[in-house]
Write a structure and sequence with these properties.
about 350 residues; alpha/beta; three-stranded parallel β-sheet; 10 strands; globular
Amino acid sequence: MDNYYNHTFATYPGIYGTLTSLYPYKGMPWVYIKEIKENKAIKPEVSSLYGILKENGYQNYFIDSDDESFLISHMIKNMIGGVESVYDNTNKTLLSSYNSKFNERTHYLFDEDIFDAIKILLQKDNHPKSISAYFLGTHYNVDSRSQRNPVIYGNGGDIFLNALHHFDHQFGQFMEWFKQSQYYENTLIILTTDNAPVHSKEYMNLLNQNPEIVRKDFVPTFYDKTPFLIYSKAIPLPKYVNAHYTTSLNFTPTLLHILGYKNHDNVFLGDTLLNPLPNDIQILMTGESFSFYILDKKIHPIKQYDNKERLSPEKIKLQQKINQIRLQQKLFYENKLFVKNKEKE
């Protein structure tokens, strides 16, 4: 997918928003997840990628490279739902029973550990399954030189390039195994991310030192083109799809379209990227606020307008979009957004 952007801030809202095709309440802060875990806030019911896959006979697994204190595993299993098992750095009994090296880490799972875990779960049984993994090795300021068998870039002096180079190596090794495996003909491999790079001083210095890699439409915000790559021998797919400057709000609807699951109850705000998309305003969410939007192939800041100001059609449509999302978030918080059809159960 080309011209595909993230629609929320990083980590919790990025993962949650991508898997549910929604704008998470208040940006899904860690404290809100903690309140739900402690029964201090209502747990909202939502439609999700995992829920619909489960309805179609899949077992869903999620591998989190961090430990349970970060609450990603809780968010996946108890707030998104539809997941058979969540494995993190403090809950990996199945994995360590197969391979003792999963017990060696005290903070996060190495990239190679996670790829090994994916292999283990693939070979667990012949049941249809989806396996998702959240890698920490490419996270902001994580130095891949701390990995078990680091593969550094050049002289190893740049942690961003080290992280990408190391992950690329580990992913390449996994793909070599995958192509020789029995799963090659009937399994989709999807590579995506929950956010664009943090525009830290170090990252901007890297871009300044390599101006040839900086796009003309690049804007230093937390939103940028992000990968959405699908490798498939099982389902014929076009080699190139133009996402037309739309966002990860469309990830789950697109994947379900590819798999042929089109008639399920849902409250997705996104749509499939395999159909022509209009030049529509795309809202980008930062925390509780809506800071930017995409229109005419560019990122623009969202400004506050005086009530007396005469708004242009573009600004009116922008405000209508924001009002729609605010309503979605209000219903989400009150657990009135999604009412599952009990007759189908």
